[in-house]
Amino acid sequence: MPISGSFNAYGARFVDPAFGFALSWNYWYSWALTVAVELSAGGLIMQYWLPNVPSWVWSACLLVVIVGINSISVKGYGEAEYWFALIKVITVVIFIIIGIFVAAGVLGNVNYGTRNFTTGEAPFVGGALGVLNVFLVAGFSFMGTELVGVAAGESENPEKNVPKAIKQVFWRILLFYIFAIIIISFLVPYNDPRLLGSGSVQDVSISPFTIVFQHAGLGPAADIMNAIILITVLSAGNSALYACTRTLWMMSNANMAPRIFGRVNARGVPMPALILTAIVGCLAFLTSLFGDGVIYLWLLRASSTSGFLAWVGIAISHYRFRRAFIAQGHTLDELPYRASFYPLGPVIALVLCTIVLGGQGYTAYHGDGVFDWGECIGGYLAIIIFAALYFGYKIVKKTKIHKLTECDLSRY
Q: Could you give the percent of the chain with pLDDT greater than 70?
């Protein structure tokens, strides 16, 4: 079903219209907040080169660029993402090769071995709760893999290209994300004073990738890596804006959002949806400039949490789809693509995401009986909003969970 909006529409078809409504708005504000995150990150990165220019100036420039790319057409978005991805892939390949040489002592003249895996409290810093916290943070970086499905409605020959893209996403995560982290683990201890959050230096310019290049004795590593990180931020902001506009467009066509957001221009771009998303992302970013940024930090956590909620929706929708498909007399041979490990796959995904969501508020406890209710609310804010959207729509529209034999399996 290559329809724009992807799993948000599937939630309404295979589960409950109220579920699809809550998923859609949850996914939209998740990416709208991600736009704000990337605007903030872009401003900080640019201050590495031009520290005297306010970061919000660069954030505004970044917003203009990504809005411009998304205004061209879906082809323009795809072309930009192709080159962004190519640059990132080349960088990671070079990083992995250099990292292996450094770990082996060929570069830098130090044989690191496995000592960083047992330094200090490693490998499980903070115990079980520390491991859970890693899931919360790393989950934000994984978000976006589901965009393969969101873009299906506008892709060429989706029956062939979408399954191919899905398989590539899996192997790229395994190679470029997991393998890169393993290399970093060999070379950079978790308590390195140059890392953000190590309790010493708080410098956005020093990333683990940069530190590895420095270990290799490569002088301009910081400048090169910051340029690459800036491209990564631009790519993430570009994808976030695309996901938002297509989700809002889909909701408008499904009568879940005002009709104006269903309008498209001559190039097929939903400009009203694009403009609203850009405004919301900009307003969310502005909360980081006033007061102590508490509201902004809440929004950041809500963005990460809402991503896990989206994956919960994907797992449930997939499980229900396959059961409905069989219940309505179809056979699996009719499907152009079948996900491996069904039903175990979506069940495990659902369980793991639920565990992570349940642990969102544990950081509110600071020991010695101190509990930060504001931080707790911030951790569960997205869940509260999702529940309000679901039950609110269900009460107003009086919707019911679909029977398997009544799920809409029509292609379009």
A: 92
